[in-house]
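Why LysR family transcriptional regulator? Reviewers of the renewal asked for a concrete example.
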Amino acid sequence: MNTHGLRLFYQVAKIGSFTKAAEQLNISQPAVSSQIKKFEHEIGVPLFQQNGRKAVLTEFGTALAGKAEHLFSLEKQIEAFIDDYRNGEEGTIRIATTYLPANLLLPKLAASFKREHEKVNLVISTSNTKDAFDQLQHYKADIAIYGGIGERPDNVDWYELLEDELWFVVGANHRLANQTIKLEEMVKEPFIMREEGSSMREHLFSLCYANQLNPPKVALQFDGLSETISTVISGYGANFISSLVVKDHIKNGQLARVNVEGVSVKHRIAICTRKNEEQSILVKQFIEKCKQNIRKNY
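Here is what the prediction returned.
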């Protein structure tokens, strides 16, 4: 179908005059008439009929004008959508995040971004470190937000948001609460941990291997971060976890630190993207917003 002819027809139908439509379109009236006759011939159905000296819409012409109105309204919406996307005002950002930033940072970061970008969809999936990077590297995510100290894949760009320390913690009434002990004694405790592939578990086991110690017994394993903390608060077992996650629990007396001699492990939270890839305006805006929030609040 000749959409140019349809557009000319719609303008005449909407205005109700060949002459006025030609003036608005800045072309000659004979050119408009010629193009519409050509369009009528193409579709094989008359669009106008003579009523004295005026040309009025046929029944089919009236119905087609209604369809054309929907079509060209949709066209405007599509053009606006493209402009919004190009300008970073509409679209989707897929975020794969590990549990620590998902619980600690992302709710505030996402809310702050959405307040300024209501039309942008944030699709957030939470998983362990391995799965988060798999999603990024296999184009299932645009951004990975990672908390850990493990090796950095070569095909990933990193921007470090903040750094904190990993602490050993127990329930407030645990016999080791606020004590200073050796690592050998600490790892004899049952530990409440996340599943294999989680960064905290890998950090603890690596620390044990580096000190030629057997890793601790994982007495209970959970997929979520909050479940591990709640279990330790109840008085059973120990955990090795980001200080940012547990500092409030320690302050309010639910948890206590165990100071382990010679152990100081730094933990980093970073935003990751695929290396050597130009990021969309939306992704750039989200990353910049994250940086601004971290600088302001941490």
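The longest strand covers residues 156-171. This is the kind of structural detail the renewal will allow us to pursue systematically.
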